[in-house]
């Protein structure tokens, strides 16, 4: 078998990988909030104030750093005052984007902040630019974070919460080029500056404002938003710009078909396996190209790129509501995730946050819950996030790959090994994905610069590329110790099974 070499200088730490690239997203969409996170106070399933306990416990295993809410497209229809006060007095609305169902606003600001506290996650609140007012956005951040007896702080107290919350992240609009208002970028850039100005820092709460950014390869959108900052060419150690916003977003979804027929989550050919992984690898290209545009205006990299929607988007499971975006999650989804996360690690100098869509029961979820029995299943993607915990807030390490096999996909060469690495104190973690559907691959880890005094490896693979977890077989795809790691004159040698994701953790001397 041919061998791939991965050269890693353990003593040359690069930019820090923010734990926030392991962020999640929860929209009022299908069974993500209702039936996923929130079951209500009368539910039989164990809950805390209506929030499902087993969901919280499972997600705590991932150390979720931040949670984005309430959308998505829903955010630009959402009026936060509808979701406060006694539940039986809250007005109803139509969720016109997702299933055209009636939303009763039972899950609102207090419930979301309660959920964040239970998860130990920081709040990323997405504000409404598309159909909301500047005053509404301004009052929401005041309601959430103000300590004194201001009108909004008093209203919050009247609704049962004395202490202000911390809200470190605030989204200014979502997909403004589409569901968030169908705006032209020049128009949105002005609105983003205006709205952001009124998302004020209250009571020591410092907000990182994120303006709705581009879709896929729309570099013009990024360019105009960057121009809207004005000069940003100060010294590298200057403080982040105080106004109008600190980050811009990027959305990119992986699917193999068209928007009308995206492909099946579980019934795919070998060609579609490779096509999905090629589409996932495209994230590397997108980060490079959007990063180059940002570098032209912001060479010191003070403006963050926030990939606040990413992941697979397949056809819904047969028999489910097309507007609810409920899909299965296979080993293929897990490898789509590991390939994206490698790209985020490699671009740690620009990518400050990312949010996979969407945590429970929607798109590339971490958890699926059975609507009839209530059974909870951890998906293969969940396990990648769990295996990657050592990368949170670790310093990135460059991985120089040699002799990587490739496969031609749609006229392009797809490298069949993806890798990234990080170091934190005396521990390092190497991520290795074998994209080859059929063949195992041996990788020599050429480890330089520090002594390696111990190692352990974990593998995520399964009998078939389409294997997935169900209530009857919840561990069809589950991590296991990998014993194919051997000493090598250059460091270590590890055999990656076909279609697998492996982490090797190193103890450094
Ligand atoms: O994640 C589902 C939807 O995808 C979001 O609501 C929207 O922002 C994007 O188009």
From TrEMBL:
Keyword Hydrolase annotated: yes
Keywords: Carbohydrate metabolism, Glycosidase, Hydrolase
EC number: 3.2.1.55
GO molecular function, one term: alpha-L-arabinofuranosidase activity
Domain Alpha-L-arabinofuranosidase C-terminal: 308-500
Keyword check for Hydrolase: yes
Class in the EC hierarchy, top level: hydrolase
Record GO biological process: L-arabinose metabolic process; polysaccharide catabolic process
Domain of life: Bacteria
Catalysed reactions, as listed in the record: Hydrolysis of terminal non-reducing alpha-L-arabinofuranoside residues in alpha-L-arabinosides
Cross-referenced InterPro entries: Alpha-L-AF_C, ASD1_cat, GH, Glyco_hydro_b
Subunit annotation: Homohexamer; trimer of dimers.
Family, per entry: Belongs to the glycosyl hydrolase 51 family.
Protein name per the record: non-reducing end alpha-L-arabinofuranosidase
Encoding gene per record: abf2
């Amino acid at each position: 078998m041919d061998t791939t070499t991965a050269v890693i200088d353990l003593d040359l730490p690069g930019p820090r990988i923010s734990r926030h690239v392991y962020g999640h997203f929860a929209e009022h969409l299908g069974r993500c909030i209702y039936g996923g996170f929130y079951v209500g106070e009368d539910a039989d399933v164990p809950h805390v104030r209506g929030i499902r306990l087993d969901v919280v416990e499972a997600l705590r295993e991932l150390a979720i750093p931040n949670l984005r809410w309430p959308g998505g497209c829903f955010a630009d229809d959402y009026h936060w005052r509808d979701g406060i006060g006694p539940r039986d007095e809250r007005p109803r609305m139509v969720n016109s984007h997702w299933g055209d169902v009636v939303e009763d606003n039972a899950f609102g600001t207090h419930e979301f902040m309660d959920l964040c506290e239970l998860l130990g996650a920081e709040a990323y609140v997405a504000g409404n630019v598309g159909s909301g007012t500047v005053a509404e956005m301004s009052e929401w951040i005041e309601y959430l974070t103000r300590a004194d007896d201001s009108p909004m702080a008093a209203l919050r107290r009247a609704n049962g919460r004395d202490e202000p919350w911390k809200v470190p992240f605030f989204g200014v609009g979502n997909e403004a080029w589409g569901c968030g208002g169908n705006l032209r970028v020049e128009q949105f850039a002005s609105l983003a500056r205006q709205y952001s100005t009124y998302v004020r820092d209250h009571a020591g709460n410092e907000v990182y404002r994120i303006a709705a950014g581009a879709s896929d390869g729309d570099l013009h959108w990024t360019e105009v938003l960057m121009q809207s900052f004005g000069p940003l060419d100060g010294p590298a150690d200057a403080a982040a710009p105080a106004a109008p916003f600190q980050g811009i977003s990027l959305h990119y979804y992986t699917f193999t078909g068209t928007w009308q027929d995206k492909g099946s989550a579980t019934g795919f050919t070998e060609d579609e396996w490779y096509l999905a992984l090629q589409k996932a690898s495209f994230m590397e290209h997108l980060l490079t190209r959007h990063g180059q545009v940002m570098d032209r205006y912001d060479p010191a990299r003070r403006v963050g790129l926030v990939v606040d929607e990413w992941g697979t988007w397949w056809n819904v499971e047969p028999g489910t509501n097309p507007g609810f975006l409920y899909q299965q999650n296979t080993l293929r989804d897990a490898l789509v995730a590991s390939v994206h996360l490698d790209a985020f690690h490699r671009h740690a100098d620009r990518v400050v946050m990312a949010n996979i869509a969407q945590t429970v029961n929607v798109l590339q979820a971490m958890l699926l819950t059975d609507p009839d029995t209530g059974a909870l299943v951890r998906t293969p993607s969940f396990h990648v996030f769990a295996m990657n915990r050592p990368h949170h807030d670790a310093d990135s390490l460059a991985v120089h790959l040699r002799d990587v096999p490739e496969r031609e996909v749609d006229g392009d060469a797809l490298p069949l090994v993806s890798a990234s690495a990080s170091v934190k104190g005396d521990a390092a973690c190497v991520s290795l994905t074998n994209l080859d559907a059929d063949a195992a691959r041996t990788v020599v880890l050429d480890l330089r610069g520090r002594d390696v005094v111990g190692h352990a490896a974990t593998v995520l693979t399964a009998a078939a590329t389409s294997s997935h977890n169900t209530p009857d077989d919840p561990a069809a795809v589950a991590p296991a110790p990998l014993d194919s790691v051997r000493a090598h004159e250059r460091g270590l040698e590890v055999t990656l099974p076909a279609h697998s994701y492996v982490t090797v953790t190193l103890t450094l001397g």
